[in-house]
UniProtKB/TrEMBL annotation:
A Gene Ontology cellular-component term: membrane
Family designation: Belongs to the major facilitator superfamily. Organophosphate:Pi antiporter (OPA) (TC 2.A.1.4) family.
Name of this protein: Major facilitator superfamily (MFS) profile domain-containing protein
Subcellular location: Membrane
SUPFAM superfamilies reported for this sequence: MFS general substrate transporter (SSF103473)
Recorded topology in the membrane: Multi-pass membrane protein
GO biological process, one term: phosphate ion homeostasis
Keywords, sorted A to Z: Membrane, Sugar transport, Transmembrane, Transmembrane helix, Transport
Membrane-spanning ranges: 26-45, 90-109, 121-142, 148-177, 189-208, 214-234, 279-302, 322-341, 353-372, 378-399, 420-444, 450-469
Amino acid sequence: MAQSHDMMSRRPPGLRLFGRSGSLRTYQTLVLVLTFFAYACFHMTRKITSIVKSALDPQTKVGFSHWGRLHTSNTLNIGWLPFNTVDGSALLGEIDVAFLAVYSAGMFFAGHIGDRMDLRIFLTIGMLGTAIFTTLFGAGYWMNVHNFYYFLVIQMISGLFQSIGWPSVVAVVGNWFGKSKRGLIMGIWNAHTSIGNIAGSLLAAFLLKFGWGWSFAVPSLIMAFVGLIVYIFLPVNPEAMEIDIDSGEFNCVKDTVKDPLLEPGQEVKHKAVGFLEAWRIPGVAPFALCLFFSKLVAYTFLYWLPFYISHTRIGGEYLSDAMAGSLSTIFDVGGVLGGVLAGHISDRLNARAITAASFMYCAIPALFLYRTYGSMSIVWNICLMFITGMFVNGPYALITTAVSADLGTHSSLNGNSRALATVTAIIDGTGSVGAAIGPLLTGYISSKSWSAVFTMLMAAALLAGLLLTKLVCAELKGKVHSDATKDATDAQGTYSNEV
């Protein structure tokens, strides 16, 4: 009776009203939808600063050409102190790196805490906190704030709340889905990153004409609303809903719970895994370091692509800030396809490392072609940006979702189910350090040469692929051994039939 009461207390308040009316498939669908929109909101609010950059610091483009501000409202020409000065780009880069530094550091703690408390409550705290501090950043517009440290501190606190999102949503999805087709399912589900970026770009670009503060305020209100929906309806795991994940039936009296991500017969142990123990799981370190360079590339585009587009002649003229922000969404559209393809290919080949490394190597020529030929025309820019987004975001999506979930339930854990959030936080937290360094370096390097920025990105993509070399070799050897065993078995079967 006490156990039943505990289960009810962990059930979301919105689902208590319906009792046991839902099936396993219903709850899995609900989890995918809620976590999809939850993390899309995290990226929607994260994307805003990249769109507003050119409104805060328009001076560079004014000096390039008289065509630069042709389509932009005059109210945005003067920029916003302290960002419309000669070192404005560097200041914006420092804000980005401060946000991402706190985000990456907070990620390690968030994963540790997430494995020890109700993920529904934890995720809600992250969403509401992010909404509040994103709004406060935009409030600087109405309060006429020109103090650099105000914006810096606000972004740092926002980064802390943002760090809660990823370990929480991956752990919840991992609780409800097994390894079968995990790469494809999570590849499709991971489209929330690109959808959030697209929504943030379009919404922020549209609201710029009313004043840049609105570009922060409106998405924050949307995020707060979705956060409340998550608190009311998100089921964290099958246990909370008293469902046997193996059969899909309700099972109210269970001494042990079978984790869907573990091998049959393994009992789930609920002791949370330590930080150092999680680092020692085979594959965690190389994938974490690979993600370091992969996210360096991805987040440089996330924070600087609209700025790059608006400060680059495309077809002989400069685009407005709003147009550049809208055009940058093509990169994320390509990222949606890249995430799905990487997940599907890795499922078919049963080779996560080979897939991730191949995509990173393909990203190198894609980056070169985009920098070289992207300025020829809008059509060329769109096509090459789409291809670049596909190869850059494909491995990033694969590693942060399917790979993290695989390693979070590795056989070396002996059936311990409390490592998902910790492993996810380690991998994505390490990647977020690279995500902080990329935009920071870009802020300084871009003032001298955008070609140098792209050279840095191509070198990072190469290193990301090389870091997986050992795992790629291991997967290739495994496949050769598997094929040899299969051939031997087939030959033995043929011989037996002949005899």
